[in-house]
Amino acid sequence: MEVKENMSVLDLIEEMGKSGVLGAGRVSKATQLFADSIKDEDTSIFLSVAGPMVPGGLRKIIFDLINDGFVDVLITSGANITHDLVESFGGGHYRGISADDEELQKHGMGRIGDVYTKSHDFEVFEEKISEILSKIAEKKKIISIREFLFEIGNMIEDENSILKIAAEKGVPIYAPGIIDSMLGLQLWMFTQDKELHLDAVGDMHELSDIVFDAKKVTAVLLGGGLPKHYALASNLLKGGVDAAIQVTMDRSETGSLSGAPLEEAKSWAKAKAGSNLVTVIGDVTIIFPMMVAGAREIIAR
């Protein structure tokens, strides 16, 4: 590899591609596959997002991908949805704070690595989401998770919200683990004296139609967990994904899904025989912005 003056991100990634199948080479392969999938009108892109990616700085990147038509399905955790809403309601994610965790708790601060939240922001979140839940409950008593998130997105005023842009662009958001989040907790509290039921099975009716209607599917898996499995397992209905990119720091030795090599998915028919699979081991918040920047350069050529 050679690093030159005034290199673009893509220039650097293409140099990284000269390193074979080590980490740098995999970033190059993943970037090219991502760009090829976006450019292919017959390919639907399923983006799964696990871990604290909104607090970790990827909110605007995911927003822009949806806004530009580069994502067809978003699958994520309830936590990322919650943090998107926290920012939509005027809250934030803060840096540069250093204190003992017990002291942080006393001062109404929560910690995600070296990113911090304020309990006041969550108090505002609780107030605002309760108002939205009341409006939804006036319209429907039973609603799928995807419809639920669509309704919330339509009621948000923040022009930088992932939920809002997905609703505007008609990109479905699936969050099968939504109850395991602050949003899920608020929903449970709301249902103590009001009626509103989430129909998780209802999502599968729609998602299966998307899978069967898609000519080809590329899954872009940021982190592992439930979002990764939901993206792959939904495609089992048609023999698996045609291509997949995985960016993870989890290891395969424990047998967990999060660290499982993508090739393992072939044994379950979650990835097709001959599918194009690229795994990059590393921090999503470092690697994915590079991939997106590189892919955008390729598309703009």
UniProtKB/TrEMBL annotation:
**Keywords from the named record:** Hypusine biosynthesis, NAD, Transferase
Keyword Signal (UniProt): no
Record: active site? K270
Output this protein's name.
Answer: Probable deoxyhypusine synthase
The upper taxonomy is:
Archaea, Methanobacteriati, Methanobacteriota, Methanomada group, Methanobacteria
| One Pfam family in the UniProt entry | DS
Q: Which domain of life is it from?
A: Archaea
User: Which pathway does it operate in?
Assistant: Protein modification; eIF5A hypusination
Name the Enzyme Commission number(s) assigned to this protein: 2.5.1.46
- Which GO terms of the molecular function aspect are on file? deoxyhypusine synthase activity
Q: Which family does it belong to?
A: Belongs to the deoxyhypusine synthase family.
| GO CC annotation terms, alphabetical | cytoplasm
Q: Does the keyword Transferase apply?
A: yes
Q: Which residues cross the membrane?
A: none
Cofactors (names): NAD(+)
Q: What does this protein do?
A: Catalyzes the NAD-dependent oxidative cleavage of spermidine and the subsequent transfer of the butylamine moiety of spermidine to the epsilon-amino group of a specific lysine residue of the eIF-5A precursor protein to form the intermediate deoxyhypusine residue.
The organism of origin for this protein: Methanobacterium bryantii
Annotated catalysed reactions: [eIF5A protein]-L-lysine + spermidine = [eIF5A protein]-deoxyhypusine + propane-1,3-diamine
